[in-house]
Amino acid sequence: GDSVTQMEGPVTLSEEAFLTINCTYTATGYPSLFWYVQYPGEGLQLLLKATKADDKGSNKGFEATYRKETTSFHLEKGSVQVSDSAVYFCALTRQSNNDMRFGAGTRLTVKP
Amino acid sequence: DVKVTQSSRYLVKRTGEKVFLECVQDMDHENMFWYRQDPGLGLRLIYFSYDVKMKEKGDIPEGYSVSREKKERFSLILESASTNQTSMYLCASSGDRAGYTFGSGTRLTVV
């Protein structure tokens, strides 16, 4: 079945470092791809999305490009801040319905 | 601002109690979902609903039931709470493939 695999955490970075969180997917057809962020004690918030191959989603300095050839949707940010510390989830919705599948989440800690 | 509201942020219940977790959305979304989130296991789908009075089992429905009497409200019911149902419960809604909107979560402790 359709699934998402993302890199295991935790990830610890210093402020202003470059961030990459890897995400690959398995799906039939053409899923939509998402990144969600969860701050401590809160629910998930949509960070960015891409609905077709080669689309780039971006928000708050984060970017991810839908790569169909490598079935990937890696999250990147050029310079992280302490306030980016959170858990990040990669997810997909299948073409046939609205059922969303999530990766296991990657915890990011940014130190001053 | 669109919202999914979960009635409680924190709940403590006793083993064997019947527990109701309420979720309300104001976006006129057709689709609503209940997940539980546990360390190391990510989000697991319990139940979902694509329409009023309609429900479908997710990946881990055992020990749970749901109710959707109105479009905006989706309730999760623990018929007889057990300690292994201690978890964070997340409700979400969606109207299309634009993505889900999540509530803030309910952290349930069963003692």
In short:
The complex is a heterodimer of chains A (112) and B (111). With 112 residues, chain A is mainly β.
Descriptive key words:
heterodimer; A: 112 residues; mainly beta; six-stranded mixed beta sheet; four-stranded antiparallel beta sheet; B: 111 residues; seven-stranded mixed beta sheet; 0% helix
Give an overview of the whole structure.
The complex is a heterodimer of chains A (about 110) and B (about 110). Chain A is mainly β and about 110 residues long. In chain A, about 0% of the residues lie in helices and about 50% in strands. In chain A, the strands form 3 sheets. In chain A, strands 2, 5, 6, 10, 11 and 12 form a 6-stranded mixed sheet that branches. Chain A is globular. Chain A starts with a strand and ends with a strand. By secondary structure, chain B is an all-beta fold. Chains A and B meet through strand 5 and strand 6 of A and strand 6, strand 10 and strand 11 of B.
Count of beta strands of chain A: 12
E-strand count of chain B: 12
Strand content of chain A: over 45%
Summarize the helix and strand pattern of chain B as letters.
EEEEEEEEEEEE
Which stretches of chain A are low in confidence, meaning pLDDT under 50 for 5 or more residues running? none
Mean pLDDT over all positions of chain A? 92
Shape of chain B: globular
Helix content of chain A: under 10%
Strands, helices and their partners?
The complex is a heterodimer of chains A (112) and B (111).
Chain A: E1 3-6, E2 11-14, E3 19-21, E4 23-26, E5 32-38, E6 44-50, E7 56-59, E8 62-65, E9 75-77, E10 86-93, E11 100-102, E12 106-111
Parallel strand pairs in A: 2-12
Antiparallel strand pairs in A: 1-4, 3-9, 5-6, 5-10, 7-8, 8-9, 10-11, 10-12
Chain B: E1 4-6, E2 10-13, E3 19-21, E4 23-25, E5 31-38, E6 42-49, E7 56-57, E8 64-70, E9 73-78, E10 87-94, E11 101-102, E12 106-110
Parallel strand pairs in B: 2-12
Antiparallel strand pairs in B: 1-4, 3-9, 5-6, 5-10, 6-7, 8-9, 10-11, 10-12
